[in-house]
Amino acid sequence: MSFKISYAPALLALLLALAAARPAAAVAPACPVGSYAAELRATESARDFYFTLATARTFSIRTYADPQNRVRIDPEIFLYDSSDTPVIDNDDNGDGVWSSFTIDLPADTYRLRAAMCCMDPDNWVTGGSYMVESSEPTCLSCSAGCAECTGPNACTACDPGFALVSGACVQTCPDGKFKSPRTWTSDAVCDACLASCKTCVNDATCSSCPVTHFYHRKAKACVETCPTGTYATADKFCRVCIGRCTACTGALWSDCTACAAPFYLSGSTCVASCPPGKYPDGSSRACATCPTGCKTCTDGNTCTACESGYWRTADSKCVLPADCPVGTFAHTNPNNRICAPCTSPCATCSAWGPNSCVTCAAPNFLSGSTCVTTCPSGSYGDTTSRTCIACGSGLWATAMDCVPTCPDGTFKSPPAWSSRARCSPCAAPCATCFSQSYCLSCQNGGTPSKGVCPTTP
């Protein structure tokens, strides 16, 4: 093992490096567990190095002048045991450029110091350097937490409670890593967390997150967006919504956006009963708006009460009075605003009763506000409008229209026009007649006598 000690005007530095054992000395033992053979770089105020002999052995050392600086001062060596008793005060052989010695030493820990002048261990002069070779390695303790190492910051095994990461033994793994296994073993290491974690307890469980993510306490995971059933907080946590909410934007009862059964969303609150004008929609679990005109309802098609100005139909709809279904009318009872059915035989009507018809269905015709099967005298039933049409002056009503002359088989009733004028049927056996029983011709071809048809032609 070799040591290099150098001087400079601006900086006094001592480099002590232990080299391999000289051929004349016994083979040097390896450094004990927990230490490593190392080069020492010392300053003027700390230029000693140490070695330990586990057993008595021959120790040899030799110094060399630096060939580049060609120091003309004889390097000198001082050696002390564990009680700081000098084993060798100095060794100045007068060569001026090197010193060496060999000595038998008992088992102990020793301190070796090099000087530059005058057989004085504390004497340093400006400039120059020299090399020191020793048969013993310089064993330095591994860094804190290392059980074994090959050099500074080069741990290969750790003390109990420490984990290995990048050549260092740490009690707490750095961000992005976790102790594996969690309970210490001699081969404990810091393994990588999930990519989304800042810190973690194992390869599947985050304990904190980077600023780009939110921490989901329940899942112990870091997420970019808080999942349904949670909401994002300013301090980057995903917190669970209150009990009634299945989705929310905050911690308040009024921050819900979806509800759990048996509750329904009304605005941003989960309620057990929907307010008036709303009904519980089981598919969306929200309070949906009742149809237009409904004051209360059970679903989107069934009103149970109507707003002012609306009437309820038989199929539980709320409509304006003019929109009551065909066959019904807007009942005027203020305590029971319904579209009531028309009285038969009205097709449509304006009020309750048979005399409030507006239209009639076949075979009936509207006469005034009443549905009749036969229109009154002086009118006929129009099959298109299903109404009774009154005939004008000089016209007699048939079953289908108004005529100035009644067709065969009928007669003018009365013979002189009136508002009730109509063509009435002749009585058998008349083929044509002047009145119901005064025949003008006979069905059997006979000739009537004084308006009476013979029984035989």
TrEMBL record:
Residues 1-26 form the signal peptide. The keyword Phosphoprotein does not apply. Keywords: Signal. InterPro entries: Furin_repeat (IPR006212), Growth_fac_rcpt_cys_sf (IPR009030), R-spondin (IPR051514). The keyword Signal applies. Gene3D superfamilies: 2.60.120.380, Hormone Receptor, Insulin-like Growth Factor Receptor 1, Chain A, domain 2. This is Pro convertase subtilisin kexin type 5. It comes from Raphidocelis subcapitata.
